[in-house]
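May I ask for an example protein's residues together with how it folds?

___
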Amino acid sequence: MEKPKVAVIGGGISGLVCVFKLLELKEQNKKDFEVLLFEKEMRLGGTIETLEKDGFTLERGPDSFISEKPWGVELCNKLGIQNEIIGTRNENRKSFIVRRKKLIPLPEGFYLVAPTQMKAFLRTPLFSFPGKLRMMMEPMVPRNSSDADESVACFLRRRFGNEALERVGQPMLAGIYTGDPETLSMTATMPRFRELEKKYGSVLKGLLQAAENKSEKLKEAGGPRYSLFLSFKRGMETLTRALAARLPQGTARLGAGIKEISRDKFSGPWRIVLATGQISVADAVCLTTSARSAAGFLNNTSQSLSKKLGFITYESVATVNLAYRRDPITHTLDGFGFVVPRTEESVLVACSFSSQKYDFRAPEGAVLLRAFVGGAFGREFFNRDDGELLDKVKKELAELLGIKAEPLFTVLRRYPDSMVQYRVGHLELVKEIENEVVKCPGLFLTGSSYRGVGIPDCIADAERTAARILDYLNRL
């Protein structure tokens, strides 16, 4: 009897973790099956991509993962790369908001839009007096008793006021999702705030109560909670390289773009048609690509599933790494970076001071910055040609940071339709997608399109999916 085959489509973090977990479960359960990984590019890792150039370590994609969700650190321990992990630099643990073309520090104790340290909040020039008064009235706002989803903008405006939304909420969310808070789902993107409102009747009351309750792990509710961010000495690709190194020879097929995935019968094997026309057969297929790509692959298999997958939308983003000598920059760069409200009408969504955030990112006497362009409010800028886009980015950074010289070099990377948008009703849509997947035995979906965009979320979901695949194989 021929041993079962599993095909994993997509060699980003989700695909690599799914294969790694399947191989681990195979050994633990003494189950004999074959695993193949198909990746359209000629490299593994997806958007996790580190470049070393002239003594600088550049991240083209994600630059960190958080320790609060343990799955990333746990995976590093399994891979034996835990000693490569680094935390953020203690002396620079703050962020800035652009306000009237100037960088204003986010007040200490700020938890997204919720002030938890009144003295610092009252002193900040980031908000007007009426705006501060409105935010302080949040505990008096009646709780929303409905379980229905609402937009992030609706929630923040209702509880903290429009000024809090426009000056902090929108740019902070744009820095994570590059999305429009008027359409982003509160339950999918900020469930913590919803839980606090439900439990305590107020976000501020909930945060202050939780800070006194060690079991809630909010003892230091300090805005972005900078100490939670982790990376690696030689960049984020340390993680994906370690995963790729664990794959047995012949497991990964690079340059293997997929055209279609189908099956002849309800209980028959899955047929994976490659862009080259080659056909591979598998008993189980796990799609770790974007929902948009998955929709295209499955259109002839299940039009209803394909249609629902197509409802998940994406925004495009470009990253620009810029290397400078330190001397010509007049700003102190005493933070991790800044975000830009859309009201500033800037080409920039955000900028990370990469070499101030982590060690091992730039040589002595040099600075590495990373700018973000595009998203829901920057589509026009994303579509500009390279030269025009770079000139605009350099000009705005020079004005904001007092840069008096050209960069030593720049590295531009575009990611079209790469940032998934968890729109209002996203969790309900995912349930509908799951119900359709059940009608396709042997088909599995994982990745950032569904249950979390962060690296630890992707790791956890990929591991759970691998366990479900093994359970399916055991029932064949």
User: Anything to note?
Assistant: Confidence is low (pLDDT under 50) at residues 215-224.
